[in-house]
Structure formats: structure tokens, C-alpha cells
Amino acid sequence: MTQGTTIPARYAAIITAAGRGTRAGDGPPKQWRDLAGLSVLARSIAAFSAFPRVVVTLAPEDMPRGIADLSGPVTLVAGGASRSDSVRAALESLEGSGVTHVLIHDGARPLVPAGVIAGVVAALRDGAPAAAPALPVSDALWRAEGGRVTAAASRDGLFRAQTPQGFALDAILAAHRAHPQGAADDVELALAAGLPVTVTPGDENNLKLTYPPDFARAERILAGRIPGERNPGDAMDIRLGNGYDVHAFTEGDHVWLCGVRIAHDKALLGHSDADVGMHALTDAIYGALAQGDIGRHFPPSDPEWKGAESHIFLRHAAGLARDMGYRISNVDVTLVCERPKIGPHAPAMTERLAEITGIAPDRISVKATTSERLGFTGREEGIAAIATATLIRE
């Protein structure tokens, strides 16, 4: 994870790697196998490099190898006979450390995208006691017996579970202690303990390496992440997001619009600098990513953002898009107001938005319209903005 995502200081990651992976075929345990020059486990750890603490569970016999091979600030904990035993040991090691939330990840999922991790973190920061990524089931489902289909099953409401699964530390540790018999995953234990679990977006590339063919697929995915390369037959992912914002006028002598200071006989009222155009564009990018809005990432209740310059929000949204593997193809911002006149300032606004988002100016449109003296904008009570952003992952 890189510049688009900030991990709170009291969050930790737990990576489970104490299993033997017997279904993966001949060779060492799957977490130690080479995957394009790095071990599977090393890649899983690297995905959580932004976390202040990373705890890795290993089989006791693997401890010497872990000490020798694993780089970075990781804490090694001896795992148990089952996955649940290993996770509980890791959770116990964090009790009393000041950590408040944990993300628990399968060490055999080395290709987890940064956006999947960011989605879980965002849900926890929004107050969810538990959150986990998943993909809706799209295939038809059957029941079978003796090699024959016996019935069709409904796929409505069914999801394929992924990791990392995030929790408040005290809640998931209590759930593990209350159910020492374990479960298939930590969400199952959370549900047994009565915790509501928020579903966040998963990703098809976040596969769990289980069988021998999975390693070949992982190699192909890694090859496809090289800029300019794409696997034949892979679909291009195009996303469109819209944003809308309004700010009322108040006393003042200037307004900020799309990053440009414009002299005016009024100012715009807002918790930050009230740049209505930049706010709408930021929400358009978040919307295309299915990552909520500015308020999710920069709560207005937080005094830290009082009077903040809006380029902070837009840079974060653009960085999050990059972290999730998207490039911003083009953006379009329309300002709705009677005054000030936007046309003379549109080129400067375009250049400023290009600088912040990192895209070419010829991919940015800034324009204005009036509301023909109708409504609050027509009465010059405030300014509205509408924005659209197109994101592409190839």
C-alpha cells in the first residue's frame, strides 16, 4: 500500500502461515514457494507494509526459516494445530499492546490489491466492528450426489469470502476465546459472537493459492501488472463516478474554485476551504472506486480538517485510485453560478487540477453555466458543482 491510504497507528495486520498446504502438490509448504522471485509469504507481508505492526504465524518448525528469510518489522508467533489456534495466538500477542483493530489475512493470498485492504480499513474507521471483502457468486449452483446433479440451489445473497478480514481487537479476541473449537474463518466466529460484519469489495485477483494450477494463474496475474502489459482475453475495467457539491455564500472577499483563488465580494462557507469544484471532483473519483465520499475519509467532525485546503482531499482520492490499480482517464467539472465569471480562470483551474491529480491537462474539462436566475444559484446564494471522472484499469 502506498500514498493513497493512511493506516491508523493502532491497526495491526495478522498473516497466517502455519499450515502445511498439502493440496498444493509436491514441494515445500506453499507459503515458502517461489512466486516470481519472492516467496508467497514474502509477497503477502509486503502487501501490508504500511501497517505499523505485522504479526506472522508460523509452524514451530518454520521459525528458524522465518527468522532468516523474512525481512522488515514483523513479529513471529508460533501457530497452533488449526488456523483458529494460530489466529488466537496472534491476537493474544497483541492484547495490551495498544492495538485497537486487526486485519487477519491468509498468507496464501499474496496478490491482495491495496484497494481491498483499503476498503476494510475504511469500514472499520467508519465504526464497523467487523468487515471483510467478498465477491458475489455469479455461477449457477447445484447439489449433487453420486456424480449426478440432484437439485439447483439459489445463489441469491451468496458471496465468496476473501481476506483480510478486519475486526476490533477486543471483540474478535473475545469471539475466539468463546469458541475455542474454531471455525472456517474469523467471520464465522464473529457471527457466532453476534458481531455485525460489513461486506467490502473483493477482487478476482485476490485468489488463495490452494492447488497446483493456482500458482500458474498467480504468475500470469503478476505478469499482467507490469505497466503496458495485459494478458490476452483480460477485460478492461472502466469505471465512472459522479460528484455533486454545494456551498453557500458568506461574508468575504474571495472564493476558491478548482484550486484557484478568485477575488469576489463574497466567500464560500464550509468546514474546509469550501472549494465546491474540487469537492465534487474528489467525490466523483471516490464514487468510481466505490469508496464513499470525502466525509468517509476526512470526517467534518474531526477538527484536524477545519479550514483544510481541498487539494489534500483530491490528492488522496487520486492516490487511492492508483493504489487500487486504476488510472484517471479524464475528468469533467461544471460550476453552476451567476458570479464570479469562470471563463477567464478556467485554464488556470485546469492546470491546477492536472498538477494535483497527475493527469494531462487535455484530459481535464472545467466549464461553467448559470441556472438562468432560477433557484439558489440564480439568487446568488451559493455555488453548485457537478463532476464526472472516468477510471480505467487495464
Automatic annotation (TrEMBL):
PROSITE patterns in the cross-refs: ISPD (PS01295), ISPF (PS01350)
Residue numbers binding a divalent metal cation: 245, 247, 279
Region (2-C-methyl-D-erythritol 4-phosphate cytidylyltransferase): 1-238
Site (Positions MEP for the nucleophilic attack): 155, 208
Enzyme Commission numbers on file: 2.7.7.60, 4.6.1.12
Keyword Nucleotidyltransferase: yes
Site label Transition state stabilizer, positions: 23, 30, 271, 370
InterPro entries: IspD (IPR001228), IspD/F (IPR026596), IspD/TarI (IPR034683), ISPD_synthase_CS (IPR018294), MECDP_synthase (IPR003526), MECDP_synthase_CS (IPR020555), MECDP_synthase_sf (IPR036571), Nucleotide-diphossugar_trans (IPR029044)
Keywords: Isoprene biosynthesis, Lyase, Metal-binding, Multifunctional enzyme, Nucleotidyltransferase, Transferase
Residues of the 2-C-methyl-D-erythritol 2,4-cyclodiphosphate synthase domain: 238-391
Cofactor: a divalent metal cation
Reactions catalysed: 2-C-methyl-D-erythritol 4-phosphate + CTP + H(+) = 4-CDP-2-C-methyl-D-erythritol + diphosphate; 4-CDP-2-C-methyl-D-erythritol 2-phosphate = 2-C-methyl-D-erythritol 2,4-cyclic diphosphate + CMP
Gene3D superfamilies, sorted: 2-C-methyl-D-erythritol 2,4-cyclodiphosphate synthase (3.30.1330.50), Spore Coat Polysaccharide Biosynthesis Protein SpsA, Chain A (3.90.550.10)
Any Pfam family matching the protein: YgbB
GO molecular function: 2-C-methyl-D-erythritol 2,4-cyclodiphosphate synthase activity
Cited HAMAP family: IspD, IspDF, IspF
Function in brief: Bifunctional enzyme that catalyzes the formation of 4-diphosphocytidyl-2-C-methyl-D-erythritol from CTP and 2-C-methyl-D-erythritol 4-phosphate (MEP) (IspD), and catalyzes the conversion of 4-diphosphocytidyl-2-C-methyl-D-erythritol 2-phosphate (CDP-ME2P) to 2-C-methyl-D-erythritol 2,4-cyclodiphosphate (ME-CPP) with a corresponding release of cytidine 5-monophosphate (CMP) (IspF).
PANTHER family: 2-C-METHYL-D-ERYTHRITOL 2,4-CYCLODIPHOSPHATE SYNTHASE, CHLOROPLASTIC (PTHR43181)
Protein name: Bifunctional enzyme IspD/IspF
Organism: Paracoccus mangrovi
